[in-house]
Amino acid sequence: MARESKPVIWMNGTLVPYDDAKIHVLSHVVHYGSSAFEGIRAYATPKGTAIFRLDLHVQRLIDSCKIARIDVTYTYQQLMDATIETVRANGGIACYIRPVVYRGHKTLGVNPTGVPVDVAIATLDWGKYLGKDALDHGIACKVSSWRRAAPDTFPSMAKTGANYMNSQLVKLEAITDGYQEGIALDSFGFIAEGSGENIFLVRNGVLHTPTIGSAILPGITRDTVMTLARDLGMEVREEQIPRECLYISDEVFLTGTAAEITPITTIDRLPVGNAKVGPVTRRLQEAFFDVIEGRTRDRYGWLFPITARAKVHRAAKKAR
User: Fold this and answer.
1) pTM of the model
2) What is the pLDDT of residue 96?
3) Distances from the Cα of 170 to the Cα of 36, 162, 216, 252, 263, angstroms
4) 40, 113 in Cβ contact below 8 A?
5) Alpha-carbon distance 268 to 248, whole Å?
6) Measuring CA to CA, which residue among 137, 115, 143, 96 is closest to residue 35?
7) What angle in degrees, to the nearest 10, is found between the helix axes of 309-319 and 54-67?
8) What is the crossing angle of helices 220-231 and 54-67, to 10°?
9) What residues form DSSP beta bridges with 97?
10) CA-based, 20 to 30 A from 47: which of 73, 116, 130, 151?
11) Catalytic amino acids?
């Protein structure tokens, strides 16, 4: 679990002590889930702490707000600066970063017109999301009875608080039934994603992953893995994937900022491949951690050091 171990939180332009970072109980977000948020990680590298793909995370936050019609008053550059400032203020060490844009307190009705929009950024000491052994030994998953929303109901491309009630139900069902994670299907019965992760399948050396039309969040780690896989000479296919492909794949793994690259060794009590972490997953894990931990050249400008602000801005502009 996450441990709120950092002393300050950025709120609407001001760094406030952790215990003072509060909202009113009648805030719109509390009752209607009217928020957009991000999960970002900062990693320790030989050259110091660096935030992984900060530019894309900030842009996705802004995009989520636009889709949800939440008027965030801070610019892309201001949110970049605020994130870096918060990490620095909390010791400049490796951490999980949670920016959230939310509707605050004014009126209680569903209509959010005129309700103020607030922004907060916190850093957390958050270890391995699916358990300390998950990356090395894999996890057990089940196909959930809960499906992702139809394309004309909830906007799956937006990372909003309201969307995550579905994720909570997927997760709780899996845990209750003795699994570590659930896999949701889309409204048409095709594979979508985990409760908070994207999913990849490996068969005959080819990497398969659902399209953004399958009610998934366009994951930034997902994009990273596809790029690394192609660099390694692998074929990557984005497509609609039937449920039964889960049972005949050689390897299956989840990706996400929190989950990183987590192998799945069983699904619905059936072994994935030989029920061990496969060679493709291992190769991608190694390539991923070599980049984020600074052991190889950052060819794509994915690492944003927290030390030199002007340098960070130039890198952000280039990466976008």
Assistant:
1) 0.92
2) 95
3) 20, 14, 14, 18, 18
4) no
5) 12
6) 115
7) 60
8) 140
9) 40, 123
10) 130
11) 159
Q: How deeply is 110 buried, as exposed, middle or buried, from its count of CB atoms within 10 A (0-12, 13-18, 19+)? A: exposed
Helix, strand, coil shares of the chain, percent, nearest 5, are 30, 30, 40
CB 100 within 8 A of CB 117: no
Helix (H) / strand (E) element for 121: namely strand 117-124
Classified as helix, coil or strand, 205 is coil
Do residues 102 and 68 lie in contact, with contact meaning Cβ atoms separated by under 8 Å?
no
Q: Please tell me the distance from the alpha carbon of residue 255 to that of residue 257, in angstroms, as a whole number.
A: 7
pLDDT tens digits along 72-130: 999 999 999 999 999 999 999 999 999 999 999 999 999 999 999 999 999 998 776 67
pLDDT of residue 277: 96
Task: Judge contact between 102 and 34, C-beta under 8 A.
Answer: yes
Tokens linked to 272: 């994935």
Q: What single-letter amino acid sits at 248?
A: I
124, 96 contact by CB (below 8 A): yes
Convert the pLDDT of each residue in 150-207 to its tens digit.
999 999 999 999 999 999 999 999 999 999 999 999 999 999 999 999 999 999 999 9
Q: What is the pLDDT of residue 126?
A: 77
Beta-ladder partners of 51: 42, 304
| 286: CB partners within 8 A, 6+ apart | none
| CB 63 within 8 Å of CB 154 | no
